[in-house]
Amino acid sequence: MNESTDQYQHIATILPSLFRHLDTAVVIADTERRIQFFNPQAEALFGCGLADVKGASTRILYAEQEDFIATGKDRFNTEAVHTYYDTYVVRYKTANGHVFLGETHGGPVCDEQQVITMYVAFIQDISTRVEVESTLNQLHSITSARNLDFCRRVERILSLGCKHFNLPIGILSQIHGQRYTVQYAQHPDNALHPGQVFDLKKTYCCHVYEANEAQGFHHVAQSNIKTHPCYEQFGLEAYIGAPIFIDGERYGTLNFSSPEPSRPFVSQDYELVRLFAEWVGHELARLRDWEALEQAQQLLEIQANTDSLTQLYNRHYLTNILIKELARCERYKNALTLAIVDFDNFKHLNDSYGHRAGDIALQRFGNIVREESRTNDIYGRWGGEEFLCLLPETNLGGAEVVLQRLVSRVHAEVIHVEGQTIRFTISIGYTRFISGDTQDTIIHRADTALYLAKENGRNRIEKQ
Fold first, then answer.
1. Integer Cα distance of 157 and 142 in angstroms
2. Mean pLDDT, range 301-319, rounded to an integer
3. Which of 108, 118, 184, 270 could join 172 in a cystine, given CB atoms 3.0 to 4.6 angstroms apart?
4. How far apart are CA 10 and CA 169, in angstroms?
């Protein structure tokens, strides 16, 4: 026993200086697996000093009795292979009962005669690393899921972040100046919803914007921002957030918070919240590009189907829609009235007042049509001063009311060109759909009716 005592006194003398600056926790035990040495990192990891545990069984360091027995059988015994120093992972616990995963290298230490004199273990807490790896795998699954749209991906990322950081509140915000707007939110009491607006200065995100970098506070009441308006108003103790950038420009923040203090945030936490925010930024940019592309496509489609002067449909669109409407009427026996509208004495208008007057008259007619037409009515420029009108679900009687009102409205219209007051009128020929009609047959009947309107004095409607 005297030799053993001298040996551990010697250990106590040389080991503190040997392992003090090692960034790994070091635990040394005697051959009975009784703790003899902790370096400062081990004291910090297990939350207790050497004086508190010296001489105690290393059993107190294990979260599970089975692990203590298994490591004793495989490594920490006099029969263990002396070179058995492979890496293994054990669930340890701290003095206050917190359980963590410890990546461990350890085994027996022998003297010159190959007699085991002590056991040593080098331990690193890899709980965060394992959690981060798991979170990253889940993040990859979310971001690569083709069945999820942007909204559902953001919702799942907020849930994932809340779970990983153990903070119940998650927010994706958009920031304009000092205006902080909630875009998406997860809150245990559903106290936050999209569209809510706050003053940026009254949120912890102001620190993110000031630093232009991820920021975190794990216990605000014990920090230098304990007088912050966000803490005074909402009592949020813990917060971690990062800025979101779209094409290099700040958009807002992704942040997580809690009314309860949390563990101190480590570098992996900041890297992870940056990664979350970076992904959201990429997706927002892609969503913005997609919306811009859709708008451009819609604009191109509108331009392709619209007469540039009157902003009514053009002949290309009218031809296609007429074919579809005739097929629908044939199939479902629906009513349809087709009308052809033509300006009266349009050549005289151009010759007397110039082509600008004619253009203004056509534009004014387009405005009148948009004001007078019903939701389902289809008007378009068929060519020159001639327009085609489709009135779905409308018989001749109903069409007469609509078309007569249009003639009266145009007749009452006045345009002014270079100080001159000009009036213009229209004539309309209309007909109903008859089973078996083609585009040519129904247009021919409407043309015939239009000819009658011209012959009977213009500024009127006629049916065929």
1. 7
2. 94
3. 184
4. 53
Secondary structure class of 120 (helix, strand, coil): strand
Backbone angles phi, psi at 69, to 5 degrees: -70, -45
Overall fold of domain 2-125: Beta-Lactamase (3.30.450)
Q: Which residue has the tokens 């200065």?
A: 201
Q: How many CB atoms lie within 10 A of CB 380?
A: 24
Query: Of 253, 262, 265, 287, which Cα lies nearest the Cα of 185?
Result: 253
**What is the C-alpha to C-alpha distance for residues 48 and 55, in angstroms, rounded to an integer?**
14
Spatial separation of the C-alpha atoms in residues 421 and 186, rounded to whole Å: 64
The DSSP output letter for 114 is S
Nearest Cα neighbor of 20 from 62, 47, 50, 65 is 50
- For 315-463, give the CATH class: alpha beta
Give the predicted TM-score (pTM) of the model.
0.59
Q: DSSP secondary structure string, 199-265?
A: EGGGSTHHHHHHHTS-EEES-GGGSTTTT-HHHHHH---EEEEEEEEETTEEEEEEEEEESS--PPP
Please, are residues 181 and 202 in contact by the beta-carbon 8 Å criterion?
A: no
The span from the CA of 100 to the CA of 131, in Å, is 11
Residue 82 has pLDDT above 70, yes or no: no
| Pairing between β-strand 386-392 and β-strand 414-417 as defined by DSSP bridges | unpaired
Q: Would you say the CATH fold of 130-291 matches that of 2-125?
A: yes
**pLDDT above 60 (res 249):** yes
Q: Provide the β-strand partners of residue 386.
A: 342, 383
For the domain made up of 130-291, the CATH class stated in words is: alpha beta
Any idea where the domains of the chain sit in the sequence? 2-125, 130-291, 315-463
Indicate the pLDDT class of residue 6, thresholds 50, 70 and 90. Answer: low
Extract the tokens encoding 112: 């010159």
Mean pLDDT of 159-171: 95
**Among 386, 307, 287, which residue's Cα sits nearest to residue 340?**
386
Burial profile 248-276: b = 16 or more Cβ within 10 angstroms, e = fewer: eeebbbbbbbbeeebeebeeebbebbebb
Residues 6+ apart with CB under 8 A from 419: none
Q: Residue 10: how many CB atoms within 10 A of its CB? A: 10
- Measured N-to-C along each axis, helices 267-305 and 127-144 cross at an angle, to the nearest 10 degrees, of 10
Q: What's residue 4's pLDDT?
A: 53
The amino acid present at 350, given as its one-letter code, is N
Across residues 57-62, what is the average pLDDT?
97
Residue 317 near residue 382 (C-beta atoms within 8 A): no
